[in-house]
Amino acid sequence: MVDKQFEVAPEAIEAVVCRLGDLEAALGPSVRPILGAVRTRLITAMAARDRGEMLEAISDVAMAMEELAACADDLDPAEAAAMRMASRSLRVALLRGDEPGARGSAAAMLERSGARERQRTR
Questions:
Q1: pTM over 0.70
Q2: HEC-encoded secondary structure of the chain
Q3: What are the tens digits of pLDDT across the range 55-97?
Q4: Is 119 exposed, middle or buried (0-12, 13-18, 19+ CB in 10 A)?
Q5: Could you give the CA distance from residue 40 to residue 29 in angstroms, rounded to a whole number?
Q6: 50 vs 112, more confident
C-alpha cells in the first residue's frame, strides 16, 4: 500500500519537525547538530512525499528516526533502543498506510524523548 501511506500520515512527520525544538530543550544544545540533520531529513521526506516518491520518503523518515534515536545513545542506551523500536514501528506503519499506527509510533518517540505535547491552535 505504498501509494497511500502519506495520504494518511503527513501530520505525524510534520509534528516531529515542529517539536524538534522541544527535544533540544529536553536534551540540551549538544544535540543541535543531530536535530538539524533530523529536521533536514524529514523536510526532504515531506518533499519526496509531495512529489509522489513514497519509497524515498519512507526511507528518509526511517533514517531521520534512526538519527533521532542516536541522540539518546550517550544519555541512555535503553531509551535509544526503545526509540529505535518505535522508529521501526513508524516505518512499518507508513509502509502499510496505517494512520493510527504511524501517529502512535511518532507520539511514542516524542514521549520517550521528553518532548511535551502541544495543543493545536486553528
A1: no
A2: CCCCHHHHCHHHHHHHHHCHHHHHHHHCHHHHHHHHHHHHHHHHHHHHHHHCCHHHHHHHHHHHHHHHHHHHHCCCHHHHHHHHHHHHHHHHHHHHCCHHHHHHHHHHHHHHHCCCCCCCCC
A3: 888 888 888 888 877 777 777 788 778 878 877 887 788 778 7
A4: exposed
A5: 17
A6: 50
